[in-house]
Write a structure and sequence with these properties.
Oligomer: single chain
Number of strands: 9
Number of helices: 2
Distance between the termini: 45 Å
CATH architecture: Sandwich
Strand content: over 45%
CATH class: Mainly Beta
CATH topology: Immunoglobulin-like
Length: 142
Amino acid sequence: MVRAMKLPTLAPLALVLALVPACKKASYDFETNSPATAGMAEIVMKVDKTGNGAMSLKFEHLAPPKKVDSSLSAYVVWMQVDGKDPAKLGVLEYNAKKRSGSLDATYSAGQMKIIVTLEQDPSTTAPVGARVLDVDVSGPKG
């Protein structure tokens, strides 16, 4: 005999599903350019139901900046929207032992260019170093 589930049994499940935020996602994979050849980049962009955007950048097989040129010290990530100068998202958290890096940031524009540069000074306010990644991406619609 099949017994019907009682409402109290379903209530916890309904509560869990209601607390899970609705989120849309876009994912991109790219290869880095010279002078940091052989690097692989993954950009994951999410937007929640309120329209807030979160971006995660992960890199693998990325040469240590000092190995590319002894004057270089960091990978810096920038975002540029049409008609505006690039805005600094941050400095890539680089792990030389694993030759990997990551950065989490927020965004609000639907379409943008993501730029990653190799810089002598990580506190630079404009991208002056070599561009190892220069790609157009679109965030998911909220």
